[in-house]
Design brief:
2 domains, 17 helices, binds fe (ii) ion, Beta-Lactamase, Hypothetical protein af1432, elongated, alpha+beta, 9% strand
């Protein structure tokens, strides 16, 4: 073999090895995430590189509506696009299951020029392959556009993209399975929690409000999505143990005696015992302890276990702040909401007395007033004027506390106005349900 020919074939071989190594990397990376958006994005980015294409798209088939949909057409990332399954080259592949390798899209009648027209892109070569799952069902289509080096994609490209599409299909199916499991888990948790809340009309909505406050604190603390998911479940289930408390005591109208109070307190241990019987997946195993420790106090004076400081799971300490806030801001049939300034002073006092975590109280006070109003009213804020909500959005709870602590002092007219508007929203003066003397 002449030397230059030998060199060429060696270079080709090297290129091939590099491509297959890159393809192997793609396959490995696909196992790294179960988040569907992230996964689709990853598939597209990596496949574009490996296929030496200019851009790629992945369309999933919605067999029910007979549509193709995508969230990650590059350039318009994370926008959902939907179109009928029989449209364009991707549609043709989705319908037939055959690979399409077109050197010049504009010479093919099936090519839908709308996307190019809308985006100003100019498609030339297209390689489009079906994604088939392990059961042999078509679940989507991967399309790569405009091969960079040559005019068209070749047989090897077809082979490589088909192999990658097969791996992508497995990864997408796993991710969907995981999403489904997650959904069914959270709907199970929500159902339990709603059933619990519905049992006691006096504290109706308590678990869901405590959950919303806790998640808001978690966001301020910079929790990841996973941490928020776990916190969500732990907070929704925190009072599940009340199932084990007799109704005569739970719903007693008036002061509880010592013995009754002790029985009420058993709900935290009941929460632990009940939740420990549920099989939680990896990463969620601490939920029973997180839920059951919402009455623990930093100095060890809480219950059920009398844990001290960091021995109390962090989520338990976050839920404790939310639980106290909701208990004193919710209405009972025998009393209205506690005056707001007193509520904030109680949180400060509890934090000063080493009962609840000062950092979490600070995080809570970082929330904007509109967020607090929305949770207090469980999103039924139609009666609060929109302009009031806009004003509330610009002020944090901590800033507002400074204003009301200083109410007798020199507030500007705007500040005084804000205080009045919030008081009105808090006391529900708009719906006429405000009781005299509050
Ligand atoms: Fe509780």
């Amino acid at each position: 073999m002449p030397e230059d020919e030998q060199k060429r074939s060696y270079e080709e071989l090297e290129r091939e090895v590099a491509r297959y190594r890159a393809a192997y990397e793609v396959m490995r990376a696909l196992g790294g995430t179960l988040d569907l958006d992230e996964l689709l994005d990853l598939i597209i980015t990596r496949i574009t590189e490996v296929m030496e294409a200019d851009r790629s798209s992945l369309f999933l088939i919605d067999w029910e509506s007979e549509e193709l949909w995508s969230k990650v057409a590059q350039g318009v990332r994370f926008m959902e696009i939907r179109f009928p399954m029989d449209l364009g080259l991707a549609g043709a592949v989705a319908t037939s299951g055959e690979i399409l390798n077109i050197p010049d899209a504009y010479n093919d009648q099936r090519f839908n020029q709308d996307f190019d027209r809308q985006t100003g892109y100019r498609t030339k070569s297209v390689l489009c392959v079906p994604m088939t799952n392990k059961e042999g069902e078509r679940i989507g289509v991967i399309q790569v556009l405009n091969k960079k080096s040559d005019d068209a994609f070749d047989d090897e490209d077809e082979e490589l993209l088909s192999a990658l599409a097969g791996q992508a299909a497995v990864a997408v199916e796993n991710s969907r399975l995981y999403e489904d499991q997650k959904k069914s888990f959270i709907s199970f948790v929500e159902t339990l929690s709603t059933a619990m809340d519905a049992r006691d009309p006096i504290t109706a909505g308590h678990s869901s409000r405590v959950t919303l406050y806790s998640l808001a604190i978690g966001e301020v603390l910079g929790y990841s999505e996973k941490q928020l998911e776990v916190l969500n479940a732990a907070a929704l289930l925190h009072d599940i143990g009340k199932i084990g408390v007799p109704e005569v005591i739970l719903f007693k109208d008036g002061q509880l005696n010592d013995e009754e109070y002790k029985i009420i307190q058993t709900h935290a241990l009941h929460s632990l015992n009940i939740l420990e019987k549920i099989h939680f997946v990896r990463g969620q195993k601490d939920i029973p302890m997180m839920s059951a420790t919402h009455h623990e106090r930093l100095d060890g004076s809480g219950y059920p276990l009398g844990l001290i400081g960091d021995d109390i799971p962090e989520a338990g300490r976050v839920i404790a702040v939310s639980d106290i806030f909701d208990a004193i801001t919710s209405r009972r049939h025998y009393r209205d909401r506690m005056e707001f300034i007193k509520v904030l002073r109680i949180l400060d006092e509890e934090s000063r007395k080493n009962q609840i975590q000062p950092e979490f109280v600070s995080a809570f006070k970082n929330l904007s007033l509109d967020r607090i109003v929305k949770i207090l009213e469980e999103d039924n804020t139609e009666l609060v004027p929109g302009e009031d909500m806009e004003l509330f959005a610009a002020v944090t709870l901590g800033e507002f506390q400074q204003l009301i602590e200083n109410e007798e002092g020199d507030l500007s007219a705007d500040e005084r106005d804000l205080v009045e508007r919030f008081k009105c929203a808090y006391d529900r003066c708009h719906d006429g349900s405000r009781t005299d003397g509050n």
